[in-house]
Design brief:
Helices cover 65% and strands 0% of the residues. By secondary structure, it is mostly helical.
Length: 77
Amino acid sequence: MNMDRIQGNWKQVTGKVRERWGKLTDDHFDVVAGHRSQLLGKIQERYGVAKDEAERQLAEWERKATDSWFAKEPHKN
């Protein structure tokens, strides 16, 4: 999945981020705002892992992203 798409739909994807990295808080999500480098840094910080490990985890998570993560909003009449 393209990180640009994830960033553009950040509010919809935060649940999936929370499932994977439960130590991240709402404040972290606000700071990250879908920016990959910010998310990478927060993973390193909260989990005490090296940059290469955080990168591995994030890349694996990105590969698992599917269209089903992006719920379509119902049309308002």
